[in-house]
Amino acid sequence: MMEKFSDLLQFTTQVSRLMVTEIRRRASNKSTEAASRAIVQFLEVNQSEDASRGWMLLTTINLLASSGQKTVDCMTTMSVPSTLVKCLYLFFDLPHMAEAPVGPTPQPPQPPPNQEKTPGQAHTQPELPLADRRALLQKVFVQILVKLCTFVSPAEELAQKDDLQLLFSAITSWCPPHNLPWRRSAGEVLTTISRHGLSVNVVKYIHEKECLSTCVQNMQQSDDLSPLEIVEMFAGLSCFLKDSSNVSQTLLDDFRMCQGYTFLCDLMLRLEQAKEDESKDALKDLVNLVTCLCTYGVTELKPAGLTTGAPFLLPGFVLPQPSGKGM
Prior knowledge:
Blueprint: H1 8-27, H2 32-43, H3 53-64, H4 69-77, H5 80-90, H6 130-148, H7 152-160, H8 164-171, H9 180-196, H10 200-208, H11 211-221, H12 227-245, H13 250-257, H14 260-273, H15 277-293
Helix pairs in contact: 1-3, 1-4, 3-6, 5-8, 6-9, 7-10, 8-9, 8-11, 9-12, 12-13, 12-15, 14-15
Region (Disordered): 100-126
Protein name: WD repeat and FYVE domain-containing protein 3
Keywords: WD repeat
């Protein structure tokens, strides 16, 4: 892209500035529900090009996000990651689609058959049902955030702008069933950050903002969450514990200090007492996650002390080689 388009970085800067400005304009001085509705109506694809300007802007950003670190750094400088994460958090308050129909879009005149469009005439396409438009928007929106978060600079910008904690709150908060895809999207973005963006600054931010403590409290105190939902939430959280353990012990210590292990024990007991088949599967998943937790960290676990008949004291005993990295 750089080779074919020498002005790529300037173009990226302008497109990013336009996107951020348009979104902020629609969010200012509105309730969260009104802001989320205004932003979604701007970004969703519509029947005519004139009514799909936000969608074209979004797909342009999606294309540019694929073109490497320099363009991603341009977007980060223009606050694209933090703006999109704020939107994602707002989308938890989107009303049910039946209650929030998109307004009628202007219908441009159709050219007669076999007549070419005149220059400047809007292109039309068959109108997608509202549910399909929303699903398409959600897919492209999370695609962009995941592409951005495969680099370190967006994670650092989220920490700097104090928006990273919104993602932690998002993955462990109740939301209406029709907005569950947005919560899963937040989990996908966080998992990407845990794999690619855990710099020293990001780990420090998560520690200082007590993000893990907030997550555990949200999961413990919400009566609206089912045990199955909580297991799904903890699966995302455990990625952070695992990936950060290669860098620092800090987040594992934070999880212990906020009684995370006690919470896991209580959750396992709740799942064990539940009757549904789904609960049994969830319990298996949770036990696997806890088993993995036992191997996280940078300190080798040594035997506690001399005990009679311990295998490491027996003649001829050889310590098996670890199959992983030996962490």
